[in-house]
Amino acid sequence: MTSTKRALKTEDLTRLEVYSDPQISPDGNFYSYVSTTANDNDDYNSHLFVQSIQGETPVQWTFGDVKNSNLRYSPDGKRAVFQSTRSGLSQLWMLPTEGGEARQLTTFKNGASSPTWSKDGKYIFFHASLDKDDDLHNQKEQSKEERQKEQEAKKKQPLIVNSLKYKSDSSGFHDNKRVQLIVLDVENNTFTQLTRDDADHSFQDISPDGKQLLFAANLNADADYELSNDLFLLDLQSKERKKLTDGEGGYHSASFSPSGDKIVSFGHGFEYAGATLTEIYVFDPETGERTCLSQSWDIQLGDLMIGDTRLGQSEVGPVWTKDEKSLFFIATDQGSTGLYEVSLDKELTTLYEKDNHVFGFSYDQNKEAFVLGISSATNPCDFYYLEKDGTLTQLTKSNRAFLEEVAIAEPETISVKADDGKEIQGWLLKPYGFTEGKKYPFVLEIHGGPHAMYGQTFFFEMQLLAARGYVVLYTNPRGSHGYGQEFVDACRSDYGGGDYTDLMIAVDYVLDNYSYIDEDRLGVTGGSYGGFMTNWIVGHTNRFKAAVTQRSISNWLSFYGVSDIGFFFTKWEHGLNLLDDPEKLWEISPLKYAENVETPLLILHGELDFRCPVEQGEQLFIALKHLRKEVEFVRFPGANHELSRSGKPAMRQERLNHICRWFELYL
C-alpha cells in the first residue's frame, strides 16, 4: 500500500489548530469558538473566531501572542465578555459584537476568569482568587516586573504546610488564596464579593429572576480530608444559603431550568470511589427533592476520551430545552462519545453518535439545533451544525492543509475476549507505506487513569509511531470507562491482575490474526497508570524488546505520601492506605520486581509532576541502573503531569523524539 501523502513528522505537532468552546449567538445566526495554536515563543496562542451558521469563512476576532477564551454573549447579543491574558494575567474584557475595540473590565491582582451574564444582561458573575482580607476596591493588576519580584521573594521564604491538600499538579504549591465569586454591575462598573468562606467556590448558574446564585463548594469543617463537593443556593438579597446536597458526593455542571423551577446537575456519591459512573439529577430548589434520571443506565456521562491534541474546555452538558421537558449531554460509550437527550420521564434518545469524539456542543433553544465539536481518529477537530431533523453540515475545515499533505492511519477496530468473558475493545494502526507480506515491529499503547477511555479521537503520538513504521495497538482493558459500571470498577484492588492479562490477551490476539506483525520486535509504552502498567509488564514478562514508561508509578508506598492525590487514591484504587498494609502495597509495586527486568527501559518524567512525582521514575532508574540493567532516564524541566497534552511545544516534541529514538534503537 503506497501513499501520495508524506509521513507524519514530530514537528507537525506545532502545525495543528485545536478548536474548543463553541457558543451560538442569541439570534442563532452565528457561533464563536476558540482556536489554539503553538506560537514562535514555545507557548500557545488562543484566539476567538466567529462564523455564520451558513458556513461562511470564519472571522478572527482577537490577535497577538496571548490567550483568549470563555467568550459569552450578552442576552441581547450586542456584547460579549471573554477572558484574556493581553494585559499580563487572565482578566475579563468586553467586546462589541458588531465591531470595535475590546475594553478591559477587571484589573484584579490575581486575575479573573469564567464570566457568565445574568439573564437580564445587567450583571456579569465570575471567579477571582483572593486572600482572606482582600479589598475589591483596591484590586490592581501587577506589572510583569512586579510579579517576578514577588515570585522571587516567595522563593526565598520557607513553605509552611499544615493541610493535606497543599499542592496540586495543575497549580503547584497552594497559598492562602481562595476562589471567590464576584459580580460586576456592568452599567455602574462596581464589584461585589458574593462568597467569603475559606474554600474554593465554583459558579454554576444564576436564577432567571436574578435572585439566587447556584454554586458548588465543600464548606464542611473537615473539607481538607474530603473529596465531596456540594451544591448551594445563595439568596442574593438576604444572603441566606441553602445546601441542596448531602455532603456525601461530588456535584458539578449544575444549572437552573428556564423558568427557575428546577435545577439539573451531574454528580455521584462515590459508591465505587473514583470509578463511579456519573449520574444526572434534577432538584426542586424549594424542597431540595432530588430525582435521578440515569439510574437504570450503564453509561458514563460527560467526555472521558483520552487524547493528546485537545486544548481548551467545551460544554458537555447537561443543557435544558426551552420547554424544560428534556436535557442534552455528551456521554462516553464503547470507544466513542456522542450527544444524547433525556426527558424528565427518563427516556433516553441518541441524537448523534458515530465512530468519533464529540468533545463539545452549543444548543440553540429557538431553532432546536446544535453546533457540535467533533474529532475523529483521522481529523483533529471541526465544527458541525446538527439540525432538528438530524441533518449534519460541516462548518469548518480546521486543518485542511495538514490533512491534505500528511498521511493519517485509519484504525481497525478489534474485539478480544478476556479470560473471564469480558469483551476488550481495541484499535490497530497499520504503519505508513504498509506492504503486504512484510513484517513490521509493534508497539502496545496503554492509557492512564485508569478510569478513562481510548477511542475514536485524533491521537498524535500513535499516528507518529505508525508513520515511523510501527503497527500500533491501543485497547481499553478492564478499568476503562465506556463499558459500564462493573467493567470500570473491575481493576480496583487488582492492579496487575485482570488488567494485565487483558493487555496480554489483546497482544496474543493480534499476533495470531495479523501476520504482518513481527513477534520478535514488540514494544510497549504508556503514561501515568499506563506507565505503572508498563513497569509491571517488564517486571513480569520478557516478551517485549523495548519499553518506554512515562510519568509512571513504581512504588505505591512512597506514592501515598508524595503524590497530590496519593493519600486518597491509594485507598480508592487498592482498598488500603500505607499504614493499613504496606506489604500488600509493596507486592503490587513494580519496583519490587526490578531484578526480573530484561527489557531495555526508557523512563520519561516531568520534574514538576505532582501527580506521579519524578521520584517514582528516579527510584526505578536507580534500582535498574544499580542492577546493571539497560535503562535510561530523561527528566523534563518545568514539566508537570500534563506534559504530553498541554506541555510546552518544544518539550512535547522532545518527548516524542525520545520515544521514537528508543524504539528505533531496540526494535
Automatic annotation (TrEMBL):
GO terms for biological process: proteolysis. The keyword Manganese does not apply. One of its GO terms (molecular function) is serine-type endopeptidase activity. SUPFAM superfamilies: alpha/beta-Hydrolases, DPP6 N-terminal domain-like. Keywords: Hydrolase, Protease, Serine protease. Residues 457-666 form the Peptidase S9 prolyl oligopeptidase catalytic domain. Residues 135-155 have a biased composition (Basic and acidic residues). Residues 135-158 are annotated as: Disordered. Belongs to the peptidase S9C family. This is S9 family peptidase. It comes from Oceanobacillus jordanicus.
